[in-house]
Amino acid sequence: MNRTPANAFLDIRSVAKAFGGNQVLEDVSVQIAPGEIVGLLGPNGSGKSTLLNVITGFTPADAGSVHFDGRRIDRVAAHRIVRTGMARTFQLPSMPAKMSVMEVAMAAATAHHGVFDTLVGTARARATERAARDKAAHLLQELLLTPVRDLPAAAISGGQKKLLGIVCALMAEPRMLLLDEPTAGVHPNLRRDIVAALQRLNAQGMTLVIVEHDMHFIRDVCTRCVVLDRGSIVASCRPDELASNDRVLQAYLGTAGAKPLATEGA
Ligand SMILES: Nc1ncnc2c1ncn2[C@@H]1O[C@H](COP(=O)(O)OP(=O)(O)OP(=O)(O)O)[C@@H](O)[C@H]1O
Ligand SMILES: [Mg+2]
């Protein structure tokens, strides 16, 4: 039986998704409590990014439901989901060709809050824009992007695009942040800064879901791991329990003798 935390902040129930004949997610149920840092793991192609896309409104599920903070969001448009307090980053961020790094960060504020269009020219609009600019400058500084803030966003490196994706997500001041492989292609020194930044955000109350292959990162950051294998949840455990979990070993190594694991939260 599925054990649901009484205070689930994100509640994913029996989600299914197929692309043509390819069943990518099957009966996926995950509950996440406020303040958790959950690592979403699984082999390549197991459905992690698809699950993030379903949660954040970028891909419609075929079946099941997603509730966030008590509100059903699985039929809500992606830009509206952001305004409920959930933001995300992308595994392969693409950046507009003609905007600078700073402009992309500012555009994220506009997209998230939708304020500038309606209030252009008013004193309040100017104050809001100033606050957004200060926030963008602060976040760019924190993620070491200040030296490239005036460069075209499309011209920065792959790792820097990942960091800019995090900046854009944080411009929404989300209460829940979902990150799709935030450290892939990022220099190890900077990876430490990202770990510290995520821990700081969590200490301030942000709930995090992180798709990540780097086990050091998982061990350092996550309070719980949920493992997908071929579209189904096969484990929910602490990071230090992963290596002794038969279903996890089977998913990654194809080892025999795996025992059936109960369900998410067991
Ligand atoms: N838009 C789409 N159209 C068709 N098939 C898709 C689409 N998006 C994902 N898939 C398929 O769904 C499966 C799961 O893909 P997904 O990107 O969710 O995996 P993943 O676990 O994130 O993998 P990785 O670790 O490599 O990023 C793959 O077989 C992929 O080809
Ligand atoms: Mg992926």
UniProtKB/TrEMBL annotation:
**Xref: InterPro entries:** AAA+_ATPase, ABC_AA/LPS_Transport, ABC_transporter-like_ATP-bd, ABC_transporter-like_CS, P-loop_NTPase
* Pfam families according to UniProt: ABC_tran
Q: Which GO terms describe its cellular component?
A: plasma membrane
PROSITE patterns for this protein: ABC_TRANSPORTER_1, ABC_TRANSPORTER_2
Q: Name one GO molecular function term.
A: ATP hydrolysis activity
Keywords for the protein's UniProt record, in alphabetical order: ATP-binding, Cell membrane, Membrane, Nucleotide-binding, Plasmid, Transport
Gene3D superfamilies per the UniProt record, alphabetical: P-loop containing nucleotide triphosphate hydrolases
ABC transporter domain location is 10-255
Q: Which PANTHER family match?
A: CONSERVED COMPONENT OF ABC TRANSPORTER FOR NATURAL AMINO ACIDS-RELATED (PTHR45772)
Q: Which named protein is this?
A: ABC transporter ATP-binding protein
**Biological source species:** Comamonas antarctica
